[in-house]
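Below is a filled-in request sheet from our internal design queue. Each sheet records the structural input a requester submitted and the sequence that came back. We keep these sheets so that new team members can see what a complete request looks like end to end.

REQUESTER: design group, bay 2
PRIORITY: normal
MODE: inverse folding
CHAIN LENGTH: 62
BACKBONE (tokenized):
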């Protein structure tokens, strides 16, 4: 899956999940730092149906 479709899915879930409290996102080691920065900025811009929704960005497990 590419970065854009994944961001669209996250955007929809945040916008339509009023009971959401936490969303865990694991960093993809295959994307470069510029793409990672872009993704982080986009995530912060997304509207959330839940005022309690927290995005938790995880480092991948080895």
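RETURNED SEQUENCE:
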């Amino acid at each position: 899956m590419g970065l854009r479709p994944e961001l669209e899915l996250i955007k929809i879930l945040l916008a339509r999940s009023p009971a959401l409290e936490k969303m865990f996102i694991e960093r993809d080691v295959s994307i470069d730092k510029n793409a990672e920065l872009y993704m982080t900025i986009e995530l912060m811009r997304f509207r959330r149906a839940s005022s309690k929704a927290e995005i938790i960005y995880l480092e991948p497990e080895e």
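SHEET NOTES:
- The radius of gyration is 12 Å.
- The CA atoms of residues 35 and 41 lie 10 Å apart.
FILED BY: M.R.
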